[in-house]
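Weekly modeling sync, notes
Attendees: S.R. (lead), two postdocs, one rotation student

Agenda item 3: backlog of single-chain predictions. S.R. asked that every request posted to the team notebook include the full sequence so nobody has to chase files. The rotation student volunteered to paste the first one in as an example of the format we agreed on. Action items at the bottom.

Example entry:
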Amino acid sequence: MTHGSPPLPAEHSRRRSRHGLALVLAGALLALPARDARSQETSPALQTTPEPATTLQEPRITMGKWIETQQILSKERNEWQQGKEILLGRLELVKKEVASLEEKIAEAQSSIAATDVKREQLISENSRLEAANEQLVAAAQKLEVGVKGLYPTLPEPIQTRLKPLHDRIPSDATTTRISAAERFQNVLGILNELNKANNELTVNYEVHTLSNGSPSEVKALYVGLAQAYYVSSGGEAGIGRPGPEGWTWEPARAVAAEVRAALEIVQGKQSPAFVPLPVRIQ
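Predicted structure, as returned to the notebook:
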């Protein structure tokens, strides 16, 4: 530029901040037209040689581009700062999620370890229960065999009472699906009834063959499970005892009166009294 203020030295411009440089350039641009006018008034030579318009526009254009560049930089800086804050926020959120997942993984691993220990305990307990169940099954089977062998020797009224429980005993213990608990419960029910019947006097109406070979209804008195007596309406009596194939009866006319008296006492027709009856102990 021929007229106007001389340009600022390069060293001085480098020391200025960007804000100060913008102010200096703006002031220079504003001062250019006034000084150019004063120069034309004082110097006739300058009036004859005006400087081109492009020379005055160049600093303005440069300044405008610089300001535009600064605006772009400021915008980019703001956007970068905002993006950075967003990324930092997301990173912090991801860190929290990772920490939460790691905590849950640790809890799951601890739970798995506890479950494995519990599983081993259950397996051990199951093995123990299976062994105990096998022992119970063997014991139940042994009791069932004994009950089956005892059943034919029971008095007829006791057999009738125990028939529902006796029929529940499995015919084949190796293929039955009845549990050991049910089998034990059934056998214990039978044994309980047998114990009860062994301490009772049981009266039953039965048909027996008398000494003349004709069948007749008699009244039988069972003393527990080991001895029985009967008497017919005609006064014929007999004594019965259990055997491997069932009860066997033999005539005993001599005890007819005693058997009739015992029956009347049991049925409440006479007052309690001592009645002697023959008993065979095996």
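Discussion: group reviewed the output briefly. The longest strand covers residues 201-209.
Action items: rotation student to repeat for the remaining queue; S.R. to check formatting next week.
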